[in-house]
Amino acid sequence: MKEKRVPHKFKPLYTHLTNNKLFYVYHGGRGGGKSWEIADYLLVEGASKKHRILCCREIQKSIKQSVHQLLSDRIEALGLGAFYQVLDTEIRGLNGTEFFFSGLQNHTVDSIKSFEGATITWIEEAQTVSSYSLQILIPTVVRTANCMIIMSMNPKLPSDAVYADYVVVDRDDTVVVQINYDENKNCPPELVALAEQMKAQDYDNYEHIYLGKPKEIADGAIYKNEFEQIKRENRICKIAHDSNLQVYTSWDLGILDPTAIWFFQVYGKEIRVIDYYEANNEPLAHYARILDERKQQFGYNYSKHFAPHDIAARDLSSGVSREQTMAKLGYRMEKGAKLGPEDRIEATRQMLKNCWFDAEKCKYGIRALQNYRREFNDKLEQFKATPVHDWASHGSDAFGEGALNINKMQMPTSKNSPPPPRATRTTLS
């Protein structure tokens, strides 16, 4: 193997067993060399002793979307071609070390058990990983003694799950390292020149792209203007459930995708968004149980449950629709019209003008709405009309289903229902 000189900021990886840490989070802007250095560490460590190394990200539809090619390139650069065998979907070492690759989005608590035994887990592009994915991944991989979890990311929003829970928060089990292009001796001079040019011309964008400073709202965000107004008016705060008002829910139903549920109360023209729930690959009985639990714990008095039109589709094996299944579970669903994404988007824009969000209970749903964005056309350097279908679209579609219905409602104002406490505000981290 060729000599490998380790930059100072990456040395904690090589002293993992003496650090007494579980998580290593590397964040920053473009050109910092995070992925190269982490790949080199994994290859060196995998050659020194047997490891089972999981390389994952939120969405991986094919091996091309993984770090498989990066690792292959670094194997050659380090002179480890005789030690590692690069296969189509995995990489194996002569000592039994194996690298395997996976997306996280469509895994469940049961299916993710295949990751057990991973001694090292690398989460690449960790800024896109959902809180749900982390909740099912981490308990599975930490069962292995002396394991480590490496996260690398270019932050997008301060509310990104990894940034909010591992970078902002001071944790005893975590090493957090920020690294940028000006600390990378191998950063191409062309990239340095581009960074310095942007620094002079557009400092805010420079801070985000090259220094890794999170943006409040994602690029191309569909509801950017609406959430800027919501922030100016401090409408993300503590919203107490009002027992005098009924609760409405709106849904996006997933089969292989997540199912998302919003909980609303309506006070005149004011929409109080009091709760949010999302899970993946669970039966409808699970979501009925969630409604039951919310009713028992918080006293939610349900009025209507708004669902998309495909709830009426019949299961091919049973011949029973999800609408019928929910009815048997005690919840009659209001089937929506067959409308396109632009109808939900326009309805959402209208309703957001009157929405107040509970900062804690809705934080993951708010993150989805803020990250719901349009696809970017790299060739034309402009955003397409098509919204991106990713983790953020489920919560956003569910909200849109609620907006389509709630906007039509004319609710009487109850004298017993005070407005939300405008004086108290909880800022999202």
UniProtKB/TrEMBL annotation:
InterPro entries: P-loop_NTPase (IPR027417), Phage_terminase_lsu (IPR006437), Terminase_L_N (IPR035412), Viral_DNA_packaging_terminase (IPR052380). Residues 21-213 form the Phage terminase large subunit N-terminal domain. It holds the Pfam family Terminase_3. Residues 409-429 are annotated as: Disordered. This is PBSX family phage terminase large subunit. It comes from Acinetobacter wuhouensis.
